[in-house]
Amino acid sequence: MKRILFALLVVSSCSVGAAASLEFKPGDHVSFIGNTLAERMQHHGWLETRLQSRFPQHELSFRNLGFSGDELTLRLRSASFGTPDEWLTRTKADVVFAFFGYNESYGDEAGLPKFKQDLDAFVKHTLGQKYNGTSIPRLVLFSPIAHEDLHDRNLPDGKENNRRIAIYSAAMAEIAKANDVVFVDLFQPTLKLYQGAKQPLSINGVHLNDNGDALLAPKSNRLCSLAGRTSSATRIKSRGSVRPCSTRTSSGSSATARSTAIRSSAAGPI
Prior knowledge:
Elements: H1 2-11, E1 29-34, H2 36-39, H3 41-44, H4 46-54, E2 61-64, H5 84-90, E3 95-99, H6 108-126, E4 138-142, H7 159-179, E5 182-184, H8 187-196, H9 210-216, H10 219-227, E6 247-248, E7 254-255
Parallel strand pairs: 1-2, 1-3, 3-4, 4-5
Antiparallel strand pairs: 6-7
Helix pairs in contact: 4-10, 6-7
């Protein structure tokens, strides 16, 4: 069943700007930034695993800098923790995966103009840096996932959340296209995925469980096909079944990919 869903998701995985493209290069350092969607990926490791299996000879390096509650212009940290740019420099980021938009979506239509302005500024700023010391980073914007209705009286059904997320995801696609960066739409595919799911894919509607993260990961397969400029020596190969691998936290400590997911409230920011 998982393989069938993987195939379906690969077909309908993402939208990109007309001229946007992404190329993974041997030895690339890929840094995740953004809200809890990014942060929790270090607990399951499916996206990293899919990318590693897609480019087995590239020896890609991943660092997860995601942090619960992060927004484009609000990233709360302890004193002297370091700025976002400093951390991306420490990780020598060649590729930046940015997961934003969910927390900002609570601003609804009234907050949309500021969000678009902030996102445009973020993209332009990021593309003006050289975190690896030599070249500008390759940036990928990921939309928020949809809110899953778990039909639990203790949890919201997600209708209002999804209405807002749809608006903000569309805005992200617009800004990505205007700046010629890759945009991955996670909203529409997950919305459809929830409808046919035989078991919950999230712990509370907005935070994916291991199964949900596994089914989300094939978005990277489509992402890789967009980026798939591989030579014959580094041709994309299918390795059959894959297992999640461990990923690195911002502190550099190894996090077990199959570790129990941290529960958090659906009411707060992610």
